[in-house]
Every structure is written in structure tokens, then in C-alpha cells.
């Protein structure tokens, strides 16, 4: 299976990041699927799953804004070997959906834990300070499979803390840019305090000690063409493109070996 970069186009948020035009990127248009923002119904989720199966290469997936982070659930369900999820996110995404028929950007981790048997554990890094309270509300069997490193944990000390909590050889990395400080990225959600060099060094450390079997990135700032011309829009494009370039370069430097996937 060839490695590659796939762009999932839900919200046109990548059209302003011109550096992508110079890469061998596979674009998948999902703008026509109804009911996908923040919450996704069973039918729409099935349509997304079918379109994901068409992609020619699997490596790093760009998802769009954090409103579509639930797509990671579909990407994880393709993996056919025991693995851990390392999630860089200011939010835990462990909240139970009000409607059991819907998967949301806030519930997908909980659904993955309950519905993907090969997912052994989840490590959430950079979460807000109330994250452990959310974790405490989980049923005991699930709670034992989740670790949270809150926002207050600083810098390079995160590396040994991260590696010591990963019991599997294979690791999938999911990144929401809202984990980053506002000086680094612009999102439409609350943001954490992590600096980009720390995030990149953590990825390299994981790649040096574990087998990274896939990755995705979300947290874009969705905007209309008019907003893109404004000051905040231009700032968002500049910062987020810089972060995405750095992340893709870092993933390109480690041994990202895509494992056999389900059909």
C-alpha cells in the first residue's frame, strides 16, 4: 500500500493553502453529502466510508475543520491489527452523543473505544484542565483504556510521559490543531497552549519508538471567499498552512508504514 496525502474536502477550507498544489495530493470531494457538520447520521457516514475506500493511497489524511474530526473513527476502523490512538486535541471527544444514531466531533473517540475491538488504548495529549473529570465519568472498563495528558503538562517532559503510556507497537496519530496555542494556529474552537516545536518533536519521538500506521490532521478555519480576503482570514491561512507543511514534513521524515487494511 503506497503512502500518500489525502485531502477530504468537506468545507473548501484547503483551497486557500496553495502549497498543497505542489504536492502529490489526492482530493476527495465530500461537499455534496448532507448533514455532515459536527454531527453525522448513519446514512451520510456510510457514504463517507464508501468514498474513503476509493482512495489510491493511505498515509496522512487532511480532514478539514474540527467539525469533521469524527472521520477519524472511520479511518481507525480500517486498521486490521491491534493499535493505540495518540490524539493531540484540546478536547477529549469522549462525550456521549445525545442521539445514539449520530456520531459527532465530540463523541467519536467514545464510539471508537466501544466499537473497534483492535483499538487497545487512547492517549489524549494537550487536553483542557477539565479533561480528567470527563474521563472519570466513563465506565470503568473504558476508563482503564484512556490516558489524558492535560494542557498544563509542559514541553519536552511530555516525551517520556507519552512513550511510557503506549503498550502497543502500532500507533495511529490524530491531530486537531486546536491543541496549539493561538500564536501557532487559527481554529473556530477553543484552543490549548502547545507550541508547534513540541508537537513536532513528540511526533518524531513516537515515530522513533513505535510503528506509526497512519495519521490525520484537522482544525482548519472554515471561511467564505469574502472572509478569506479579510485580515483574520489571511492570518488563518498563513498560520494553518505553515503548521500543515511542518506536520506533513515531519510525518514524511518518519517510517510511516501503512498496515494492511480492511476492504
Describe this structure in words.
This protein is an alpha/beta fold. The protein has a single domain (5-253), classed as Arginase, Chain A, CATH 3.40.800. It has nine helices and ten strands. It has helices at 42-53, 71-76, 108-115, 131-136, 140-143, 158-164, 196-209, 225-229, 231-253, and strands spanning 5-9, 25-29, 39-40, 60-64, 83-88, 103-104, 119-127, 146-150, 170-176, 211-218. An eight-stranded parallel β-sheet has the order 2-1-4-10-9-5-7-8, with helices on both faces. Strands 3-6 form a two-stranded antiparallel sheet.
- Count of alpha/pi helices: 9
The description of the largest β-sheet is: 8 strands, parallel
Q: Would you tell me which CATH topology applies?
A: Arginase, Chain A
CATH architecture label: 3-Layer(aba) Sandwich
Secondary-structure blueprint of this entry?
Blueprint: E1 5-9, E2 25-29, E3 39-40, H1 42-53, E4 60-64, H2 71-76, E5 83-88, E6 103-104, H3 108-115, E7 119-127, H4 131-136, H5 140-143, E8 146-150, H6 158-164, E9 170-176, H7 196-209, E10 211-218, H8 225-229, H9 231-253
Parallel strand pairs: 1-2, 1-4, 4-10, 5-7, 5-9, 7-8, 9-10
Antiparallel strand pairs: 3-6
Helix pairs in contact: 6-7, 7-9
